[in-house]
Fold Microcin C transport system permease protein.
Amino acid sequence: MGAYILRRLLLIIPTLLGIMVVNFTLTQFVPGGPIEQIIAQIEGQGDVFGGFSGGAGDGGVSNYGMESDKYVGGRGLPPEFIESLEKEFGFDKPPLERFLTMIWNYMRLDFGESYFRSISVVDLVLEKMPVSISLGLWSTLIAYIVSIPLGIRKAVKDGSGFDTWTSGVIIVAYAIPGFLFAIVLLVLFAGGSFWQIFPLRGLTSDNWEALSWPMKIVDYLWHIALPVIASTISAFATLTLLTKNSFLDEIKKHYVMTARAKGLSESRVLYGHIFRNAMLIVIAGFPAVFIGVFFSGSLIIETIFSLDGLGRLGFEAAVARDYPVIFGTLFIFGLIGLVVGILSDLMYVLVDPRIDFEKREG
């Protein structure tokens, strides 16, 4: 197992490098770099996209990787100012040199500073992390707590009326977009047209610092309730049906019939023999499920509930062309995702020591 883990760890390096090469290359062809953003703001256009409507006389839109006349709308500014901006952001250097410098800095865990926020990328990610962790962790836990017992019950009652109507409910829930369900929750329970039971925005109240620890916990749960429900609703279907199908596969195996033939009770057969084997894929997949919810995040749900998390951070960085934030978070999240993949394999071995990935590879 040690050799397998070592190989997986070594594969992280070329995988991350490939991810960064592809994304860095793509940005070279995207119009509207950070310099154009600054020029647009200086000239009162609000954002860079206001400068892309030039007529035929403007020569069209060009990328920031060309000469200084590329900056649409910036031709009234002194060339020296443009050059100083290029030097400040490092765009006076060839793309390959900028990429190699960036990778060297990342190897030393130096992710740079945001172009527009005067804060390091690491500090910015740590600042937004609590919101995304809250959504990801609670959504995953609630999905498991509800879906596993429900999936087991559906497997035991396979083909019954209970199985039929619960399948209908979870499939309908899966079909409802998370953002639409979030809006419904706001309308019903957050001061819309009906009741104001939960707060409309934020992760904590304004008087958070003055609250006692028990009240801080209550206040936090009060704020996070609706966003977590909105994030979780579509996860029930996949996890419930996965649990049900896993149990159904195990129920049909010979060792189950042998256990029943020995006179064991149905409860003992279900939880003493079937449970461990059936739950292997469900439990071992917990890290991957959590990181999936954590990444997918819910830009829309964060926006609807006014939560300042990683989803909004990524979107705002992409719109503003804040490259240190874009590439830094991409590198960090890519690394986390690859490590979680290894942890998922270790979870399989922990749940069932009979699994040997080295023999399978051989």
In short: Confidence is low (pLDDT under 50) at residues 48-69. The two ends are 12 Å apart (CA to CA). The chain has two domains: 2-121, 122-361.
